[in-house]
Amino acid sequence: STSSTNPIPSVPVKNEVDHWSDADEQRRAKKYTSATKTVMEQAAMALAAAHDVRLSILLPTGMYGPVILPEHMQGNPQVWLKRLIEGGEGRHQQIPNNSSSMIHLHDLAALFLAAYENPAASGRYFGVYDSWHWQDIYAELQKLLPTMQMPAPIEGTPVTPTGFDTTRRDSLGVPVRDIPTLLKDTVEWLKTDPFKA
User: Which CATH number fits domain 2-191: 3.40.1190.10, 3.30.70.2860, 3.40.50.1000, 3.40.50.720?
Assistant: First the structure.
């Protein structure tokens, strides 16, 4: 998860080699899942180094696209996108002044496979295409679902989305779908009622 790559102070563009979250700060902020991810990654890297084991870690956030099991429909983003398609409320009542990072599940799987198959691959790799502000995400979704229920607009000046240096990700040689494409693919797949719910 990219939650292990949030340095303090924050940086405009982060990379997965130099930037780590502070697990103690994450615990103080009651971000226990994020703190656990940070600690586990550091422990795995130390163990791999101590035993001369090649370790590649992919760091995704929002995972869009077709899921495998019906139970996966109960998680984000599928659950709230399905509600939007059905005319209900999406993830937010008001657009948050924040951004979200995302990737298509098929691209993430291809990145995992590329890292596994490449004997030179090791270390951390961002498993994201990019990050968009939530107002841009909802605007793109409205192009796909013109009658969707829009959340109330944000208040204030929009924050700058999280910036990622994807040089290492790109070194794996996997083409990654852009955000409009992954949103479109996900919405179109959900409209097929894949598990005949």
Answer: 3.40.50.720
